[in-house]
Amino acid sequence: MAITNIKNLKEFSTANERFEGAHLLCPGCAHSMIVRELMNATDDNLVIASNTGCLEVSTAVYPYTSWDTSWIHIGFENAATAATGAEAMYKARKRKGTLPDPDAPVKFVAFGGDGSTYDIGFQWLSGAIERGHDFTYICLDNENYANTGGQRSSATPIGAHTSTAQAGSVSYGKKQKKKDIVAIMAAHGAPYVAQLAPNKWKIMAKGFQKALETEGPCFINTVSACTTEWKFDPKDTIHVTDLATDSLMFPIYEIINGRELNILYRPKNVIPVEEYLAAQGRYKHLFKPENRHVIERIQKDVDEFWEYLQRREEARV
Amino acid sequence: MAKKFELNEVEVWDGNYAASQALRQAQVDVVAAYPITPSTPIVENYGAYEANGYVDGEFVMVESEHAAMSGCIGAAAAGGRVATATSSQGFALMVETLYQASGMRLPIVLTVVNRALASPLNVRGDHSDMYLGRDAGWIHLDAYNSQEAYDLTLCAFKIGENLDVRLPVMVHQDGFTTSHKAQNVRPLQDEDAYKFVGDYKPVDDMLDFTRPVTHGAQTEEDWHFEHKAKQHKALMDSRAVIDEVFKEFKDLTGREYKRVESYMMDDAEVAMVLLGSSVETAVLAAKELREKEGIKVGIISPRVFRPFPFDLVRDELDRENLKAVVCMDKSAPGGAMGALFNEVAGALTSTKVRPMVTNYIYGLGGRDFSIEEAQRIMREQKAHADAGYITTPIQQFSGVRGPKLGFFETRRGK
Predict the structure, then answer these.
(1) Which residues pair with B114 in a beta bridge?
(2) Is A89 within 8 Å of B74 when comparing Cβ atoms?
(3) What strands, in cross-sheet order, belong to the sheet with B395-398?
(4) Is B144 helix (H, G, I), strand (E, B) or coil?
(5) Yes or no, beta carbons of A85 and B70 under 8 Å apart
(6) Closest among B326, B330, B325 to B369, alpha carbons compared
């Protein structure tokens, strides 16, 4: 049932025709909210590919599956290629007249975590976008390799503690900044690229619909708060996501045709990043006196990036 | 509708062109590929067919061989005919997905133009890539020349897509020796070739939305073993289908293929076992040796490398007159006996007679394997036979410079 027919959030979030609730994701994991929202945002048939990761290992454990739609998983890095291979087959069979139902509308979607999107599957994603297939790639960005117990990825922000970029007596956690995947995907010339968050569910649903309706390769980075590795209470997923979007750690925006940038959410009251960091165990060590400089650095980076986004939006280039 | 390609009764094709013509005639729905020497022309030829309307499927040029097979898997799960080509390093990059393709029981055809694996980097032919994929759960067919590369590629679709099989199939040909050597080939006309291959029959089709299917599920210790056991059984059971397809092909063309090819084995006193284009060299060498020196040499080649024809190899070797067998491995063995030696030696454990068996490593990185060298090795086998024991180390190297290499002495000789 597409979102246009759904009256309220409760109905929307519990509609499970195509993605069953009986999966193995952690209580409080945002992945399922994002996935269900995507699947509720369209009435079209879906062919979904998933990279190896939390979503995949939690939803298709033989002999069970949460997916009441066509779904495929191959490996850690190649969901973009699986989805686009299927899309190529769709085009070939449509041309040759061998589809079971040639008029059935169908959308091709790939899901990956930040590990498979920013890191190991980066090349596969880049290739699929460059080839111009009609599909949408959605990154469930929880900023670490959560499926394997919380190792750093190139999406992990500076200062965060992970098991492979640890905070310790001589370390404040990860030393490098997060990769700007949205800019990289926009630079591919993809017709629709966005960064969205499940707390802003109406914006997210609209963004998903826009991507699905846009012909050509679309990319969406979604913030997926990770109760287990960010270390917050499972009931606080949306609260932590609110802090992420309202502190502008995760600005919500879209880039059309690699050029036209639109900010989709402007917090009425921008909160200091400190509030967002303080809500999560992974940043606990930053509040020690010797690490306060990292918080200042993060705030500076966030301010500068927000300024950049606004200028890009104004300039329309 | 793709245009018909006018073909003469006899064409002059190299192995690459032969393979690409077979892909065209099978009307593959999706080719997802990445070029690599020496199989690049297969992909280029296919690109030319596409550009000129001779194919009406999708031709997806991806950014790596890993992506090529990944795209093939996604496409195959979406219910159509799929093929690609690769060699060597590209094959190595593909290995992860080779296991996924077979585990997901998707009948993809991969034409492999065999080439050495780096390091040192080398573009010439040996069987390192073939051996790298031997446990990947694919059916492996082995062509010795252009005609066979064409014939076996057509057979590969029919074997892999058979509903009792549903497994991916590789067709091997030797880099340069076969892939770039133009020879006379008798092709089928387009309609006859397609009729032989038949329409693709979708199974668990991702584009059939009346019956959603989950492909590539997770299994742990509770189910993984059952899946792998079934997959192995499917490979073993494919033997009957391979025989049947080879028979149908013979009825259509007169050209006969067997899971194990053997030449002059009836009265053979010594035998050479080998793969690929070297089989033709060995057959010529053996014929000449029989004529000139009266040494009764026979040749055995597993045409189907996987499922390994253990039973047929055993039967070929189980002969009272056979005294010595040499297994020729065209791949660096990496601290073991050659893989073909191990397979053949394994088959020999269940024979009534027990000929001596030795191993040669030869032809690495495209090193030429001459008729003279083949005959030298055959004479050596005759010496073993006459002596009644292995007169050399059990593993030796053929055609390599430097001090003579040999490993493992026979106990009978000491």
Answers:
(1) B174
(2) yes
(3) B260-263, B297-302, B270-273, B324-329, B356-362, B395-398, B406-407
(4) coil
(5) yes
(6) B330
Distance CA B71, CA A89 (A): 10
For residues B168 and B82, what is the distance between their CA atoms, to the nearest angstrom?
10
Residue B179 near residue B173 (C-beta atoms within 8 A): yes
The answer to whether A94 contacts chain B (CB < 8 Å) is no
Q: Which amino acid is at B236?
A: M
**A3-315 is classed in which CATH architecture?**
3-Layer(aba) Sandwich (3.40)
Residue B313 CB-density burial (10 A; 0-12 exposed, 13-18 middle, 19+ buried):
buried
Q: pLDDT (tens digit, 9 = 90+) per residue, B153-196?
A: 999 999 999 999 999 999 999 999 999 999 999 999 999 999 99
Interchain CB distance below 8 Å, B80 and A78: no
Q: Are A50 and A32 in contact (CB under 8 A)?
A: no
Nearest to A93 among B64, B207, B214 (CB): B207
Tell me if B206 and A62 make a contact (CB, 8 A cut-off): no
Contact A57, B218 (CB under 8 A): yes
pLDDT score at B414: 47
Q: Does A24 touch chain B (CB under 8 A)?
A: no
Q: List the single residue in B with minimal CA-CA distance to A101.
A: B208
Let me know: does B94 contact B111? Beta carbons within 8 Å: no
What is the rounded CA–CA span in Å between residue A21 and residue A316?
Answer: 42
Contact A75 B218 (CB under 8 A): no
Rounded Cα gap, residues B65 and B91, in angstroms = 7
Query: How many Å apart are CA B342 and CA B344, to the nearest integer?
Result: 6
> Domains in chain B and their CATH numbers?
11-202+216-253 (3.40.50.970), 262-407 (3.40.50.920)
DSSP state at residue A229: I
Q: What is the DSSP string of B261-298?
A: EEES-TT-SEEEE--TTHHHHHHHHHHHHHHHH---EE
Interface contact flag, A124 B70, Cβ < 8 Å = yes
Please answer whether residues B261 and B246 qualify as being in contact, where contact means their C-beta atoms are separated by less than 8 angstroms.
Answer: no
Any B CB within 8 A of A116 CB: no
3-state secondary structure of A7: coil
The alpha-helical segments, DSSP class H, found in B10-105 are 15-25, 40-51, 65-77, 88-103
> Could you read off the pLDDT of A283-294 as tens digits, one per residue?
999 999 999 999
Q: Which of B77, B82, B217 sits opposite A61 (nearest CB)?
A: B217
Domain boundaries, chain A: 3-315
Tracing tokens 């002495």 back to the chain, one arrives at B409
**Which residues of chain B lie closer than 8 angstroms to A63, CB-CB?**
223
B218: enclosing H helix or E strand: none
Tell me whether residues A45 and B209 touch, CB distance under 8 A: yes
Q: What is the pLDDT of residues A162-221, one digit of tens each?
A: 999 999 999 999 999 999 999 999 999 999 999 999 999 999 999 999 999 999 999 999
Radius of gyration (Cα) for chain A, nearest Å? Answer: 19
Residue B273: CB partners within 8 Å, gap ≥ 6? B299, B300, B301, B302, B313, B325, B326, B327, B328, B340, B344
Q: What is the ipTM of this complex?
A: 0.97
Percentage of residues of chain A with pLDDT beyond 90: 93
Q: Give the pairing type, strands B297-302 and B214-215.
A: unpaired
pTM: predicted TM-score of the whole model, two decimal places:
0.97
Q: Which residues of B touch A67 (CB under 8 A)?
A: 212, 214
The Cα of A83 is separated from the nearest Cα of chain B by a number of Å equal to 6
DSSP A67: B
Q: Does B203 touch chain A (CB under 8 A)?
A: no
